Amino acid sequence: MDSAALQAYLNGPASTAPNGTVVDLDNPPRNNTSPLVLATVCIVLTTLAVVGRAYSRLFVVKRLQAEDYLGLLAFVGFVINIGYSLVLLFSKSAILLEWVNIFVPKGTRNTFYWSARVMMVANILLYTSSIIVALAGCQPLALFWDFWLSGHCINRKSRDTVNAAFNVVMDVIILLLPQLVIWNLHMTSTRKTGVCVVFSVGLIVIVTSVGRLVGIVTMDYPTSFAGVFDTPYQFSGELEWIIAEVTCVMLVFCVPALPRIISEPTIQLTARITQAWQSWTRLGRNSRASESQYSDDRKWDQVNLPHHVPRANAAIPKSQQRVHDEENLWMTNNDTETTVEVLELANTPDGTYPGYYHAEVHSDAAQKATKHPMEAGILKTIQFDQHDGDVS
After folding, report:
1. Can the peptide bond before residue 259 be classed as cis, meaning omega within 30 degrees of 0?
2. Is 56 part of a structural domain of the chain?
3. Alpha helices, DSSP H, located in 138-201
4. Residue 279 belongs to a domain
5. Domain that holds residue 344
6. C-alpha span between 171 and 188 (Å, rounded)
7. Together in a domain, 349 and 214
8. Tens of pLDDT along 14-24?
9. Do 78 and 174 share a structural domain?
10. 3-state DSSP assignment of residue 223
11. 207, 235, 261 — which closes off a domain?
């Protein structure tokens, strides 16, 4: 292209208007409401989900793992818009690592573990190759922006179509992985359904990734200077699918951690209120005799374990136990990881839980191994982790 033709092209419209389109360059229709609303909702949802997960990991679980840092990198990439492939590289790797930690007992190398590892490698290869091809797809590299130069570029539509198709397949596999495990757990159908719902946010990811694939297939990519294409207008719709997809991927990563921030703080607050009330009532006791009568003569009822804690055998293995002190008087049961916090569970002849605690009250060492209801004192607890019905 000579300099005169190039100048004429640069001074003119990018392309001839498609048939049936009225050109109005002075006051063009903006249609900005829909993308602005979508972008705002997506950023708010993603931010709330990430903050909720961060709170859960920092203040409830009090433990950070590799997937938490990958998720943070994905969120930063999403906010500053550094690249679709890079964000999904971090976020989907974080999801797979998270699900291995949830569904695979430590030291186990089962089918789920290897399937997740294979998907993790495929995820890294897919998005790394996408980044490399995007950066090296034109020779010379300047042909990306100085498109009038001599050289060649790979077919961008073919590249984007293959990338989007593999992306849909990966989303389907990642969605199905936990479902196969959940429906084999020893839980009621109602509870299984509830857990499946938590891990089914990926359905929305599949919808958005399919929408992106359809948009790529139907988009008019520019093929020559003389061709008629409407890529800038059509690509705005493609960007909406991309924003929605990345948002849903971040939700898939964050949502399973959110139930903890609903239950744990409330339980701990209730325990502290109970403790404060006990301390206040003890101030009114004027004699050792009255306290003894209160503690020894009062008939205590057996305290049943909460209905949502499974009645597992009390012969708990001693391996991989974490012993620590906590001001927590309750027992929590997650859908895939059960945390039982007690000092001691006494065995009945049939080897099951008797339905009450043997609690150690720090304020009075003489009351050790005395049967108390849930409202009594601060418990020194031992935490046992149970995965998929197996205690470890």
Report:
1. no
2. yes
3. 156-182, 189-198
4. no
5. 299-391
6. 27
7. no
8. 777 777 777 77
9. yes
10. coil
11. 261
- In the chain the first and final C-alpha atoms are separated, in Å, by 72
Return d(Cα 337, Cα 386) in angstroms, integer: 6
Please name the residues in contact with 350: beta carbons below 8 A apart, sequence gap of 6 or more. none
CB 240 within 8 A of CB 37: no
72: enclosing H helix or E strand: helix 66-80
User: Which positions ≥6 away from 235 have C-beta within 8 Å?
Assistant: 219
How many domains does one find in the chain? Answer: 2
Residues 274-289 have pLDDT tens digits of: 666 566 655 555 444 4
Spatial contact of 212 and 241, defined as CB atoms under 8 Å apart: yes
CB atoms within 10 A of CB 295: 17
Q: Is 200 in the same domain as 339? A: no
To the question of pTM greater than 0.85 for the whole model, the response is no
Residue 332 in any domain: the answer is yes
Tokens of 167: 């992306």
Domain boundary among 213, 243, 261: 261
Residue 380 CA from chain centroid, whole number:
32
- What are the start-end ranges of the E strands in the chain? 138-139, 152-153, 322-325, 332-333, 337-342, 357-359, 370-372, 380-387, 390-391
